[in-house]
Write a structure and sequence with these properties.
By secondary structure, the protein is an alpha/beta fold. The protein is built from 19 helices and 15 strands. The protein is 51% helix and 18% strand.
Length: 549
């Protein structure tokens, strides 16, 4: 297998930027160890307990002024983009006019070919400017684009409802996941089956309407959920009503033994407090309504041309291919959806992409059942690559393949990444495979991201107990060491105590994040010191002290 050599560059760039940023529209992370399903009653109790009114809510005038300013900025961006589009369209029309004149003289074949190339290049520029006009009103984070962050996921939550009302539960498939991916990076996501790896990839692909959080691609918000914003309104009303009821009760108690003059004074004081609470509630309401409106606009108006730059290789190479379609039809399906119906051009693109993935043009007329598992996976890769993506999500592309074929697919993906300048998300079960292919690795458990670090750092300093459990599950090639291998079983209820001190995603070392509380953070730092000094040695994820060797 080929080792990616850009790990240090990515790590140094990532260490300067905090991966986890606090966005005003999202909630603080929480963790429910060992709980996968939750009833509506449990959810209400949990959210009401941890929900608090925002401590620094701007005034209503400040909120309106802020959104008016943002609206003016978006308007200016659109006007500027339209002006640039008109300039490029004028150039394109001039080139087409010149081409039409030259075509009247068939003897000028070389000049015609040159002008056709210029028209095609100018058409691409016009398409880019047209896309910029469509993106002008989408929420944009220029800092992400400046830092060359191609994908940013912020507090992603994806819940599924199981059962029917009133006996239904919510399955927390993904619960508060945040990460950044730089251009050209290969980002690995590992974990056991059902931990939320594939769901995270499908949320990025827009295959699911996410529950809460935001997804930014090239700085633009292409997906968002409004659940938290609605909950903010709901619980702000609940806490405001509780506070007003308490004030009225206090007024009745104080007025019971007061004179009429004092009663009037107490009433005036209580009414001022109630008015302040209602003003605060109205500010929260206006603020969250504006955010919900922006979320719905972004979800509806995210341009398809931008979303097409994110493609996915699915896990099962058999079920992901239509058995009634030829290979050529399968690969060309995305092009036809985009409106490209030129048969000759589509056939040429299909032949080129088949050669890139190690197949031959004769395979285009065959059906999926005529191929082996590895060849089917190559067809799935070709289907994704023909759309010319910038971000490729590989959802366990090698888990259904034989061991002998896995290395071929890994090397193929590595070659294609270097050749086409791809950024990849590689989802897998096996940490040993991900180590040799990815720059950074995220470990997920029960919908939560529990550890995030570079591949070298994760294997040098595995801190979270679940990461150690995954490392201990890697088979050893030596039969003697395999016989001595100790399997670590991760039991969250035994190794974590989050009853009082809740965990958060913390940076233990530069670029190395772990989900832990204060006590665990201190413990992990001591483990790192012991590992660096050589007092502790890791053997398949198991810590062995120097004096016990």
């Amino acid at each position: 297998m080929k080792k990616n050599n850009s790990t240090k560059d990515i790590a140094s760039a990532e260490s300067t930027d905090k991966v986890i940023e606090e966005f005003q529209e999202q909630e603080a992370p929480s963790f429910d160890a060992g709980a996968e399903k939750i009833t509506p009653e449990q959810e209400e109790k949990e959210e009401k307990e941890f929900h608090h009114l925002e401590s620094s809510v701007p005034t209503l005038e400040e909120t309106k002024a802020r959104y008016a300013e943002e609206k003016e900025i978006r308007k200016h961006r659109k006007e500027k983009a339209k002006a640039a589009l008109n300039v490029e369209k004028t150039k394109l029309n001039q080139l087409k006019a010149n081409l039409g004149k030259v075509k009247l003289d068939p003897s000028k074949k070389d000049e015609i070919d040159e002008l056709e190339k210029l028209v095609a290049a100018q058409q691409e520029i016009v398409d880019e400017k047209d896309l910029a006009v469509k993106l002008a009103h989408i929420t944009y984070k220029p800092k992400l684009a400046e830092n060359k962050t191609i994908l940013a996921v912020r507090h992603l939550r994806m819940f599924f409802r199981l059962g029917v009302w009133p006996n239904y539960v919510k399955l927390k498939a993904v619960h508060d996941v945040s990460f950044d991916i730089k251009e050209g990076e290969t980002f690995g996501i590992v974990g056991e089956s059902g931990c939320g790896k594939s769901t995270t990839g499908r949320c990025i692909m827009h295959l699911y309407d996410i529950t809460s959080g935001s997804i930014y691609f090239k700085g633009y918000r292409v997906g968002a959920g409004d659940r938290w914003n609605k909950k903010e309104i709901k619980y702000s009303n609940i806490h405001a009503n509780e506070a007003i009821a308490a004030l009225k009760k206090e007024e009745a108690t104080r007025c019971a033994s007061a004179s009429s003059a004092e009663q009037e004074k107490i009433h005036h004081e209580i009414q001022e407090k109630i008015a302040a609470i209602n003003d605060r509630r109205q500010m929260v309401l206006e603020r969250q309504k504006s955010k919900i409106k922006a979320i719905h606009y972004d979800n509806k108006h995210a341009p398809r041309a931008l979303l097409n730059e994110i493609q996915m290789i699915f896990q099962d190479p058999v079920d992901s291919l239509d058995p009634r379609m030829t290979v050529e039809d399968i690969i060309q399906e995305g092009l036809r959806i985009q409106g490209k119906h030129n048969r000759l051009e589509n056939h040429q693109k299909t032949v080129e992409i088949l050669k890139k993935v190690g197949l031959v043009p004769e395979h285009a007329s065959r059906y999926p059942h005529e191929f082996s598992g590895g060849q089917r996976q190559r067809i799935g890769i070709a289907r994704a690559l023909i759309m010319n993506p910038k971000l490729l999500i590989c959802d366990e592309p090698i888990s259904a393949l034989d061991v002998s074929i896995r290395a071929q697919i890994i090397n193929l993906l590595n070659d294609l990444k270097e050749e086409m300048g791809l950024t990849m998300i590689f989802i897998a079960h096996d940490l040993s495979t991900v180590k040799y292919f990815c720059n950074r690795i995220a470990v997920m458990y029960f919908g939560n991201m529990v550890e995030l670090a570079t591949s070298e750092e994760l294997f040098r300093h595995p801190l979270h107990p679940y990461t150690k459990s995954l490392l201990s599950a890697i088979p050893q090639p030596n039969p003697f060491s395999e016989k001595r291998r100790q399997r670590i079983v991760y039991r969250p209820d035994e190794v974590h105590d989050y009853s009082t001190d809740k965990p958060s995603f913390r940076e233990i070392l530069p670029g190395h994040f772990v989900l832990c509380n204060d006590k665990e953070e201190a413990q992990y730092k001591k483990e790192i010191e012991a590992l660096d000094k050589g007092d502790i040695v890791l053997r398949g994820g198991v810590e062995v002290r120097k004096d016990e060797q």
